[in-house]
Amino acid sequence: MDIHEYQAKQLISKFGVQVPVGEVIYQPHEAVTVASWLNEDDVVVKCQIHAGGRGRAGGIKICKGQEEIIAEVDRMIGMKLVTPQTGPEGKIVSRVYIEKAYNIKSELYFCITIDRETGGNTIIASKKGGVNIEEVAEKSPQDIFKVKLGPGNKLLLHHARTISYELGLKGKIARAAQKNFIALYEAFTNLDSSLLEVNPFVVTDKEEVVAVDCKASFDDNALYRQRQVAEMKDDNEYDPLELEAARHDLNYVKLDGDIGLMVNGAGLSMATMDIIKFYGGKAANFMDVAGAATPERVAAAFKLIYRDKDVEGILINIFGGMMRCNDIAQGLVDAAKDVGLNKPLVVRLEGTNVEMGMEILKSSGFPITPVPTMDQAAREIVQLVKKK
Amino acid sequence: MAVLITKETKIICQGFTGAQGTFHSERAIAYNTNLVGGVTPDKGGMTHLDLPVFNTIAEAKKVTNCNASGVFVPPPFAADAILEGVEAELDLIVCITDGIPTSDMQRVRREMKGSKTRLVGPNCPGVLTPGVGKIGIIPGHICKPGRIGVVSRSGTLSYESAVQTSELGQSTIIGIGGDPVNGTNFVDALELFLDDPDTDGIVLIGEIGGTAEVDGADFIKSWGKKISKPVAGFVAGAAAPKGKKLGHAGAIVSSGDETADAKKEALKSAGVIVAETITTIGDAMRKAMEKK
Question: Is A102 a residue of the active site?
Answer without folding.
Answer: no
